[in-house]
Design brief:
546 residues, alpha+beta, 5-stranded antiparallel β-sheet, 18 helices, extended
């Protein structure tokens, strides 16, 4: 699927020996990329101006290429990012690897683990077959040719099942773990591995996003392809065609967005930790008795007095260390607090040390209100509804009126996360379908009509849609009851359905197609007789009802 290239770009190795021609020619599919667009545009894109002006293109962020040929190709790659909408690449952040290591360590905190598990459980929901998603072909069925529609739709569903099993998503919680990693790292990258003939997708090869750079390259056939350059060590780089690379990014703009979801939680958790630690130390310090020692020095010289005081200080001082990572406390190196201690001093000529109890005078930190404030700040930063953190749980309201605004925002946030993560199944499926039906290559309407439908465990969405639909139907029935004449309604039924039920154009077309199909089947049945309107009894107002 890839080949090696030397850093001076003078010679390529194995560039054309990996993918088959039908896979290679798909390297621009889905990017809405065309040489004509880049040639005809007059302005420089945002990525070109922000990254290209940051320094010479020989900078390590661009792979170290200095020739004019490579400079032009890298500028073309930046133009592809602006045209295609892919702007955030890990390679543009020189500190990303260090930041990723920190975020992975930071995500081990108990509060972050709870938040990540909650969002991952909401986004990736397994059914009884251990499937978390299915292909969505509703939009596709509305414009396909009737003769091939059933064949294509059945092929999509069949190939999706094969890919799901090949990627081993059905045997474990692999998809759940990948989604959780996506929240922490902010980037995921995979290579779609195909067979030698380029007819079957056989596996996913996980890549390091920090090693991938988008570019273009001219193949042996003279055609220019969108490729990803993967840096391997200091001297070699591997070239992978864009048609076989899945690159998922949490951020859309590295200069304006957080690298990952977890990064937004760093500040509120650090503030919460600071308050927790100060509160813990306050309780520890005031759980002990404080003593004041007055040591008589008599006629000793200052040097001798300092020596004696130093010896007494070493005998009775206490060093307290609190480890906020594991919550352990040690006093003088011992993992326990001494609640009782003996003091023994010598007495000579009636002079002896004086020991007094000192009353603590400081701010009262016994209240938990301040701690709860910073805890709520962390929870709000997580975007998880506050009601889900309520102690003891809360009653589940299934009415549309009872849905809190936080639940709706959280539902929209999870959908945004899913829209990026769905590429892990959507792009391999599209590649597989295009290899079986090459006539759809370059048909962007075909690509946009195939989607991924995630399993959902949020009853709020379903109940809300049902109640809203019921209210719309009731409103349409009231409109249809407005008389124009004694027998006719002022509003046409089709007009009311299209304008007040708020169905999409695809949903209306699908409904009409199903009606025509039923009418066709009913017409094919022998012996069908029309039922007279006089049969059945009852009064008829003459006006349609929904």
């Amino acid at each position: 699927m890839a080949g090696f290239v030397s850093k001076d770009g003078a010679k390529t190795y194995g560039f054309t020996s990996g993918p088959a021609d039908n896979v290679r020619k798909l390297s621009s599919f889905g990017m809405y990329y065309d040489d004509l667009i880049i040639q005809r545009r007059q302005g420089a894109g945002e990525t070109e101006t922000s990254q290209g002006s940051a320094g010479p293109l020989g900078h390590s962020v661009y792979g170290g290429y200095t020739s004019a040929q490579w400079d032009q190709r890298l500028l073309s790659a930046m133009a592809i990012q602006d045209i295609g909408g892919l702007k955030a690449l890990a390679v543009y952040d020189s500190n990303y690897i260090t930041k990723r290591d920190f975020l992975r360590s930071f995500s081990l905190n108990d509060e972050i683990v709870e938040i990540l598990d909650t969002i991952s459980d909401e986004a990736i929901v397994y059914d009884e077959k251990n499937w978390f998603c299915y292909p969505d072909t509703k939009g596709l069925e509305s414009f396909l040719n009737e003769e091939k529609k059933e064949e294509i739709v059945d092929t999509i569903h069949e190939e999706f099942k094969k890919l799901y099993v090949k990627f081993e998503f059905n045997n474990n919680t692999k998809a759940w773990n990948l989604f959780r990693q996506y929240l922490v790292d902010g980037f995921l990258a995979f290579e779609i591995v195909t067979d030698e003939d380029g007819k079957e997708v056989i596996a996913l090869n996980k890549l390091d996003p920090a090693t991938l750079q988008l570019s273009t390259m001219v193949g042996d056939d003279g055609e220019e392809y969108i490729v990803w350059i993967q840096k391997i060590g200091n001297d070699m780089e591997r070239i992978i065609y864009d048609s076989t690379v899945i690159y998922i990014a949490y951020a859309q703009n590295m200069q304006m967005d957080r690298v990952s979801y977890v990064e937004r939680l760093v500040r509120p958790l650090n503030l919460l930790r600071l308050i927790e630690n100060s509160k813990v130390m306050w309780h520890i310090m005031y759980a002990q008795m404080r003593l004041k020692m007055t040591i008589p020095i008599g006629s000793n010289s200052p040097q001798k007095a300092k020596q004696e005081l130093s010896e007494i200080l070493n005998n009775y001082k206490e060093e307290i260390f609190f480890n906020d990572a594991d919550g352990t406390l040690s006093v003088n190196g011992r993992p326990s607090i001494p609640f009782f201690k003996h003091f023994m001093f010598p007495s000579k000529d009636g002079n002896s040390p004086n020991v007094e109890v000192i009353a603590g005078q400081t701010l009262d930190l016994s209240s938990t209100d301040f701690l709860k404030y910073f805890e709520s700040k962390l929870r709000r930063a997580s975007k998880i509804p506050m009601s889900r953190f309520a102690e003891g749980g809360s009653a589940l309201s299934l009415s549309a009126e009872g849905i809190q605004r936080d639940e709706i925002r959280f539902h929209n946030f999870v959908n945004r996360l899913r829209s990026g993560f769905q590429e892990i199944m959507l792009k391999p499926l599209l590649l597989q379908i295009l290899m079986k039906f090459p006539e759809f290559h370059g048909d962007h309407l075909f690509k946009s009509s195939i989607g991924i439908k995630f399993n959902r465990d949020n009853s709020f969405e379903t109940q809300r849609k049902v109640e809203i639909m019921q209210k719309r139907i009731a409103a349409i029935n009231e409109l249809l009851n407005i008389p124009k004449t004694k027998e006719d309604s002022y509003f046409d039924l089709d007009y009311a359905m299209e304008n007040f039920l708020n169905l999409t154009r695809e949903e209306l077309q699908e409904n009409r197609s199903m009606i025509k199909e039923k009418e066709k089947k009913a017409g094919d049945k022998p012996g069908d007789e029309e039922v007279s309107s006089e049969e059945g009894g009852g009064e008829d107002s003459g006006q349609p009802q929904v």
